């Protein structure tokens, strides 16, 4: 066996039959019945472990951003995705060993913004200039685990982390969170908006709980245009098998 | 005659037959001469009928006695003697009768003569009466005639007097001129003029008198002019001013105008006094009064001067105004009140500004005395001028008191922060090796006692405001609202609340926003402090306050003690939870770093427990000591007998029976996974960041849970080689060996460590566990 563990990234093609939904990141596990077709590797030998890979949300599937250690790498897929060319990159400099833990590509603003998390800080980047555009220092008391953009409401960003909290931010004013949820009793690993009904937020935590929150007040339809609002309970706890 | 007299005498007695009784001496006395006359024996001896001179003479008895007793010779002698005696008596009687007759005749003559005389006199009397009547009529006539003359005479005499007075009137202008001259005695001139004026007015139809009147009027006008000029003179003192105005009033100058002048003049004086007071105050500096020097004199001095100069003058002014203009038209209608109200308002403003300068705590007794003096003087003024702002004055005092209480609250807060600073310093101070610094209990005791002491001192100071000898303490505000709203709520309750909030702030604030976090020991200390407050201190403080400032029954609602206690308990809980989280996070961070930085694939076969695990155990032991200094032990769940010796590893086939799954094989990782999840369904759920109880065991359990859960989460993200797994096994056993004793329920520790091992096995490329005996050996070696 290898003496070193290295996290890599690659682009795969899913079997035709399954291509109805879009996956956010290439899966590195193979299914038993159908096999994935490897298209190309994202060469990260110079940049360290891959932490996160993101497709351009509204694009034609030609652009990928990946986070490797303290680098943001923007890739162009060429020759029918047979080759990934590093088009631009940026490195996060600072004291100590900085490592990105997570990132999201904003579907707004013509897909020119991404948000990244490293340690307790959330940063926003412009993909055209590869410069930092905002920074939320100490967004969480401890490590920030995940981020997600509101699909219907630009500037709105959700984050979660080891302080058991889920926070909602307006990236135009990052001094205070818009709202904070403290429902989990251990680290919150993931947070996701529902793609169409953005008041629904799903969070997963190592307290063995997945919580679905109905956050109408900070959604794109704060006055409840949906008929079946009442049918959605505020929070649904489901026990899920731990990963 | 003698017998007649005797009969008359006894008749006068009214009761002749009874000789005894109280009136005996009354009738006996007239009989005295008779008895003496008839011989004493007759009265004393039994009536002797034989006594010839006795009243009870009985001739038969006498004769019988004489005849029986006496010899014949003697009888004859007696007969002769009696015969003589009878004749002598007869002749006496005749003589007396004759004399009586003579006297009667002469009396008759005299009466006849008198009759004649009287008749003559009667005629003369009639004459006299007629004469007297004549005299009285003529006298009335004379006096009637004279009356007219007399009246005319008196009239003439009066006219003569007036002529003399009128003559002196001529001198009036001269005198007036002399007295009304500048620097002379205008008062005398006025008196003189007042006397002359009526007369002059009476005779003004006479040209000469009119001239005099005109002249004196001119003089008086001139005088008035001069007096008015004088009135405008700034240097006039109040007494002179009053005199001046009084004279002008006597000159019948229009009172309204005078009133105006009087007030404006007095106003100028009072303004000057206010300005003198104001000069002591630093100029109102809107840019911020940071650099203003401390006031030259203390507040008592200021109030003293203010009240003696300004309030005194105002009182004087009001009194003289009253005496001058009382009852005159156009001078009433609240002009004085308005005037005084304006001035007192300014005075209050000045005083308020001066009070605002009392920034420091200074001497409260001084302030109280100053306010007391102010209040007393003001009350004196209010008796004269009820409209001069009684409410404003009382409100000013109340505000000043309130302000001082607020300042005390701030001082208390500063003091508390200072104490906290000291505690932090003591905690942070580097300790020389081998020498322990002050223990946490000492620090806590010092902190608590100094805060309580300070609070008591402040209450004692504030109590000065309600002291019995302070006049304003009897105001309703100071009896009710001040005690409740200002002191109890505004000072004591606010301080306790603030203390709880501040303590909470250490738990809520800093970790989020990068401010320097409080040292964990401080959190622990504050948690204990808040807990103590909840248990005893709050009720003690409130009782003390209610004793010193008895609340009114009808006063505003007060914050009940239990509400405060709940707040304190909330703060204590929050602090302790935060302490657990901070300490847990510190240990967790250590574990995470150690897991993340290690290459678990390429590691060599474990020979030792990793240093970081020893460090973890050391740290938790230190935390145990720290918490033990302030909190009680707490209860542990009953332990199984073989707790420390129990085998640790999910792979161990020698597990104690009855634990989770009795046996399963390491060669089936899927089964292991499934089984461990099924176990979890039946075991107690572990809340990692759950609130802890106020005891050592609970706190330690919380910290250990956080640490081990972190270890679990980190391990399951790694990929391990065989020796990596074995190292985890060794480390886990070591932790189990040393941590169970701190936890409330060792099964919690056990469960988490089992999960760590299970995760590690799940993430292992070559899951071959170490022999349990070897693990134990390594751990025992240290």
From TrEMBL, chain A:
Pfam families: Beta-prop_EIPR1. One of its GO terms (biological process) is protein ubiquitination. Keywords: Repeat, WD repeat. Residues 31-212 form the EIPR1-like beta-propeller domain. InterPro entries: Beta-prop_EIPR1-like (IPR059104), EIPR1 (IPR040323), WD40/YVTN_repeat-like_dom_sf (IPR015943), WD40_repeat_CS (IPR019775), WD40_repeat_dom_sf (IPR036322), WD40_rpt (IPR001680). Residues 222-243 are annotated as: Disordered. SMART domains: WD40. It comes from the Eukaryota. WD repeats lie at residues 137-173. Belongs to the WD repeat EIPR1 family. This is EIPR1 protein. It comes from Nyctiprogne leucopyga.
From TrEMBL, chain B:
Keywords: Endosome, Golgi apparatus, Lipid transport, Protein transport, Transport. Residues 42-51 have a biased composition (Low complexity). GO terms for cellular component: cytosol; EARP complex; GARP complex; membrane. Pfam families: VPS51_Exo84_N. It is found in: Golgi apparatus, trans-Golgi network; Recycling endosome. Its main location: Golgi. It comes from the Eukaryota. Involved in retrograde transport from early and late endosomes to the late Golgi. The GARP complex is required for the maintenance of protein retrieval from endosomes to the TGN, acid hydrolase sorting, lysosome function, endosomal cholesterol traffic and autophagy. Acts as component of the EARP complex that is involved in endocytic recycling. Component of the Golgi-associated retrograde protein (GARP) complex. Component of the endosome-associated retrograde protein (EARP) complex. This is Vacuolar protein sorting-associated protein 51 homolog.
């Amino acid at each position: 066996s290898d003496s070193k563990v290295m996290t890599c990234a690659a682009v795969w093609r899913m079997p035709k039959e399954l291509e109805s939904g879009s996956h956010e990141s290439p899966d590195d596990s193979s299914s038993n019945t159908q096999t994935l077709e490897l298209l190309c590797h994202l060469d990260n030998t110079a940049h360290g472990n891959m932490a996160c890979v993101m497709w351009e949300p509204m694009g034609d599937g030609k652009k990928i951003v990946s986070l490797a250690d303290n680098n943001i790498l923007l890739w162009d897929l060429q020759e029918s995705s047979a080759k990934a060319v590093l088009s631009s990159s940026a490195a996060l400099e600072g004291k100590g060993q900085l490592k990105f833990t997570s990132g999201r590509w904003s579907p707004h603003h013509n897909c020119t913004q991404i948000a990244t998390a490293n340690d307790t800080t959330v940063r926003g980047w412009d993909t055209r200039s590869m410069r930092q555009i905002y920074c939320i220092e100490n967004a969480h008391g401890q490590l920030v685990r995940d981020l997600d953009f509101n699909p219907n409401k630009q500037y709105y960003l959700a984050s979660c982390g080891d302080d058991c909290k889920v926070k909602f931010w307006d990236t135009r004013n990052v001094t205070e969170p818009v709202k904070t949820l403290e429902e989990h009793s251990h680290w919150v690993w993931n947070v996701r908006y529902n793609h169409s009904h953005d008041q629904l937020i799903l969070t997963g935590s190592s307290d063995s709980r997945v919580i679905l929150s109905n956050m109408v007040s900070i959604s794109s339809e704060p006055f409840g245009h949906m008929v079946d609002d009442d049918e959605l309970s505020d929070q649904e706890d489901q026990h899920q098998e731990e990963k | 005659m003698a017998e007649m007299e005797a009969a008359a005498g006894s008749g006068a007695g009214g009761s002749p037959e009874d000789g005894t009784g109280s009136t005996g001496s009354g009738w006996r006395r007239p009989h005295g001469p008779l008895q003496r006359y008839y011989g004493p024996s007759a009265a004393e001896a039994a009536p002797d009928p034989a006594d010839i001179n006795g009243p009870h003479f009985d001739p038969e008895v006498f004769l019988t006695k004489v005849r029986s007793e006496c010899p014949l010779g003697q009888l004859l002698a007696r007969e002769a003697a009696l015969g003589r005696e009878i004749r002598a008596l007869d002749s006496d009687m005749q003589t007396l009768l004759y004399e009586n007759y003579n006297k009667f005749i002469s009396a008759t003559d005299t009466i006849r003569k008198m009759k004649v005389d009287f008749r003559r006199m009667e005629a003369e009397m009639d004459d006299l009466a007629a004469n007297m009547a004549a005299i009285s009529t003529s006298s009335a006539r004379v006096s009637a005639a004279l009356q007219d003359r007399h009246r005319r005479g008196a009239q003439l005499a009066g006219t003569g007097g007036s002529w003399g007075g009128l003559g002196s009137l001529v001198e009036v202008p001269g005198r007036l001129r002399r007295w009304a001259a500048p620097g002379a005695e205008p008062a005398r001139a006025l008196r003189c003029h007042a006397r002359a004026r009526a007369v002059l007015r009476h005779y003004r139809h006479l040209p000469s008198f009119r001239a005099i009147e005109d002249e004196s009027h001119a003089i008086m006008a001139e005088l008035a002019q001069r007096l008015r000029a004088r009135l405008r003179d700034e240097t006039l003192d109040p007494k002179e001013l009053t005199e001046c105005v009084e004279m002008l009033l006597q000159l019948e100058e229009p009172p309204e105008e005078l009133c105006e002048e009087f007030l404006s003049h007095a106003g100028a004086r009072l303004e000057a006094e206010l300005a003198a007071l104001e000069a002591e105050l630093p100029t109102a500096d809107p840019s911020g009064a940071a650099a203003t020097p401390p006031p030259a004199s203390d507040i008592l001095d200021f109030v003293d001067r203010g009240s003696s100069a300004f309030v005194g003058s105002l009182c004087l002014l009001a009194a003289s105004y009253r005496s001058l203009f009382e009852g005159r038209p156009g001078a009433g209608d609240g002009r004085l009140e308005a005037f005084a109200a304006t001035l007192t308002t300014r005075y209050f403003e000045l005083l308020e500004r001066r009070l605002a300068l009392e920034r420091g705590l200074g001497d409260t007794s001084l302030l109280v005395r100053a306010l007391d003096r102010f209040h007393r003087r003001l009350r004196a003024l209010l008796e004269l001028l009820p409209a001069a702002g009684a409410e404003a004055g009382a409100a000013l005092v109340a505000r000043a008191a309130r302000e001082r209480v607020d300042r005390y609250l701030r001082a208390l807060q500063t003091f508390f922060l200072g104490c906290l600073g000291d505690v932090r310093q003591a905690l942070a101070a580097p300790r020389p090796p081998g020498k322990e610094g002050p223990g946490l209990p000492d620090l806590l005791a010092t902190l608590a006692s100094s805060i309580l002491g300070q609070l008591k001192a402040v209450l004692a100071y504030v109590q000065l405001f309600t002291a019995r000898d302070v006049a304003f303490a009897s105001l309703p505000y100071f009896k009710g609202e001040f005690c409740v709203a200002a002191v109890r709520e505004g000072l004591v309750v606010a301080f306790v609340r603030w203390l709880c909030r501040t303590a909470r702030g250490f738990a809520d604030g800093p970790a989020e926003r990068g401010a320097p976090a409080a040292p964990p020991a401080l959190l622990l200390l504050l948690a204990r402090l808040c807990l103590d407050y909840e248990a005893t201190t709050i009720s003690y403080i409130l009782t003390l306050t209610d004793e010193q400032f008895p609340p009114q029954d009808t006063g505003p609602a007060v914050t009940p003690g239990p509400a405060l206690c709940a707040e304190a308990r909330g703060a204590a809980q929050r602090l302790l939870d935060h302490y657990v989280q901070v300490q847990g996070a510190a240990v967790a961070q250590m574990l995470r770093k150690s897991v993340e930085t290690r290459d678990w694939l390429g590691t060599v076969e474990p020979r030792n427990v990793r240093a970081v695990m020893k460090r973890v155990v050391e740290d938790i032991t230190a935390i145990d000591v720290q918490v033990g200094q302030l909190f009680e032990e707490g209860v542990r769940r009953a332990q199984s007998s073989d707790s420390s010796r129990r085998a640790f590893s999910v792979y161990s086939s020698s597990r104690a029976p009855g634990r989770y799954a009795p046996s399963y094989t390491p060669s089936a990782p899927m089964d292991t996974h499934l089984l461990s999840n099924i176990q979890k369904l039946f075991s107690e759920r572990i809340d990692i960041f759950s609130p802890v109880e106020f005891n050592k065991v609970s706190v330690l359990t919380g910290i250990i849970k956080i640490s081990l859960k972190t270890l679990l989460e980190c391990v399951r993200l790694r990929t391990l080689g065989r020796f990596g797994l074995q190292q985890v096994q060794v480390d886990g056993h070591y932790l189990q060996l040393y941590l169970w004793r701190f936890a409330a329920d060792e099964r919690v520790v056990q469960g988490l460590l089992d999960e760590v091992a299970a995760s590690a096995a799940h993430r292992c490329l070559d899951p071959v566990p170490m022999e349990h005996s070897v693990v134990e050996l390594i751990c025992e070696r240290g």
